[in-house]
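Notes continue from the previous slide.

Worked example: a multi-chain complex. Inputs as given:
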Amino acid sequence: MADADGAHETRIVTEFLRARPDDSWTMEAARTHNRAYQSLEQAFAMGRPAIVEAVTASVLRGKGGAGFGTGQKWSFLPKDSFPRYLCVNGDEGEPCTFKDHMLIERDPHQLLEGIIISAYAVETELAFVYVRGEFALGAERIGQAIRDAYAQGYLGKNILGSGFNLDVVLHRGAGCYIAGDETGLLSSLEGERAMPRIKPPFPAAQGVYAAPTIVNNVETISTVPHIVRRGADWYNSMGGGKSTGTRIFSVSGHVERPGNYEVELHNTTFRDLIFGLAGGVRDGRSVKFFVPGGASSPWLVPEHLDAPLDMDYVQGELKSMLGSGAVMVFDETTDPLLIAWRLAKFFAHESCGKCTPCREGSGWIEKVLYRMSHGQGRPEDLDLLLSFGNNIVPGLNAPFAQTTICALGPSTMSPVVSLDRWFRDEITERMRRDEERRDTLDVVPA
Amino acid sequence: MGLTDADRGRAQEIIARYPHPKSALLPLLHLAQDRDGWVTPDAMVEIAALLDLTPALVLGVCSFYSMLKREPVGRLVVSVCTNVSCMVNGGSDLFEELRARYAADPDVLVEEVECIAHCDRAPAFQINYDFHGPADADGAAGVIGQYQRGDLVARTISGTSPAAVP
């Protein structure tokens, strides 16, 4: 898989679905041509503490966006408090992220095996898989996988003679970005509007039905069987620092070969990903800017292409984040104001309305960015955005502080802060020209 | 339209999956939409009775989620993504052209949607939640035609496979 530039994928959770594109989602293929469900007996033999220990020692971190330590999260469950629940977050909605879509649709048995092991490790007998409503085929495939797993004795009572019981319930969303926030997901699962809840209490203490709850991302859970089978040392021998193992990056935009690429963290760079694997920018053009980790992450520019895909480096040194792993690449013909406006429109549409700074602020950000990107801007508009944005993100410094319950509020300011960081002069000049041009018009355009 | 015995049986089976009945609200709203083609006011009243909730609460939840339609929308929902990766690959034009083309067709709703996680196939769109793309307006209209003629079997507007709808 090595490219001429030395960029290569390290396929762990994507290995099987790439190897069997025609039937990787079937029970038969997963058992015959892969090791589906073979880690279960090993997990039951290891026992719960050893699994939690292995996951902790692997330094596996949440792959949905926040990057919180999975073993650490599991350890927050209060002892002897039952019932408790596992919720798998498959509500992938962060713009330009499409990895969980692939994992749910094309390797549901890997996900289910991870659910069984994780549920056993955290001592729950009921797990929910929350699948984004728009993933119709994905829901169908994981639903079939669940039925097949019951038929084979991997789910239900006394799984493989272990004495462990587990039921898995597939829950389909109905179209809503903020259900992907971990507490928004819990609200949605309880049959409410998917409005996030203030933390603490954290879900591990009080989650769904006010019971201790673990919420983990699809890719995170899909990794668990591999760690059980091959050990923590194998996993954390890849990558470096606190960015161990691999992550799937969804590369899109103006690249030659958009797609999902699973690469080793820390030892791979944005350049490897964008040029080595995704084939570089189309039509011989160059990168103007790129968004490194979903719409919520502040943008980066060509001088950052050689930075490592390391969660702490990108946050600490570059004041951005790897977030959901969505790398959007834009060439030099791209209008950054138009991209900022479209992302602002997204956040304004998806704001749940619970917190005033986000409900009101996201709409105003969108309106001002609209006029700026459509020839109606004013030279002072960028500063105007920063001034009221300061009410959502006090100080405007990364990592963002917030005046809202969830991270959607501060995310609305990522595009604006990025414009200010990288394109202030260009924008100020353009706003001045737009204003002059408007002065010569007889009528005010609509 | 009132609930049939079969509907009630399915509803009870869904409710029984959850520790708390209210969790069945979204699945029941999908079920109602599968049956009626949209979420009717009567269905919301029925669901409220099944879950011991007020109809107002059911409406409040229903109106929060974009896949749940509170008015008839026709048989096909075409969801065109115009978020950034699709936008720079022609998604906005695709949306505008399809919207104009089907404006007078009561059977086809063309709607602008946020990222549908199919960005490697930009501009991406869904027809009753089947993924398609990349395509220009003519290409997309061709696919819509295949569903209209029955060459491709459409899911319900909730994305349920027709085989799963009684």
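Summary box: Chain A touches chain B through 56 residues (CB under 8 Å). Chain A has 18 helices and ten strands.
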